[in-house]
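Quick review question:
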């Protein structure tokens, strides 16, 4: 049930961002979902690799990753990745909008020389 709430929050945030900057909201929603699930996968790989380096292969051979603490860590890692992608896209779209406004106002009445 909490996973559905995360999907809703991701959809709402990325859709609002896309609507604000006149972009395709479904494309941004899937970017948000991909960043969340990609972040959880990357978090799992990083923890696995770190444990293998520190404790050897025996530390990841058993089923120690099924408790709630690890799941909360992976969700936090996915949330941070999703937030990072959101802020990156927000800054990128803001710069694009400023560039279009700047070029539009300054180019009024000017003749281009070839």
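Suggested answer, residue by residue:
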């Amino acid at each position: 049930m909490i996973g559905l709430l995360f999907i809703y929050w991701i959809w709402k945030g990325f859709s609002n961002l896309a609507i604000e900057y006149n972009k395709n909201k479904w494309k941004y929603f899937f970017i948000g979902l991909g960043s969340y699930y990609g972040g959880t996968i990357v978090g799992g790989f990083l923890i696995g690799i770190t444990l293998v380096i520190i404790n050897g292969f025996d530390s990841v051979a058993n089923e120690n990753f099924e408790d709630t603490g690890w799941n909360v860590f992976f969700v936090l890692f996915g949330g941070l990745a999703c937030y990072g992608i959101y802020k990156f896209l927000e800054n990128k779209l803001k710069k694009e909008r400023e560039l279009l406004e700047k070029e539009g106002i300054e180019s009024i009445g000017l003749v281009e020389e070839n």
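Why it works: The two ends are 61 Å apart (CA to CA). The chain has a mean pLDDT of 85.
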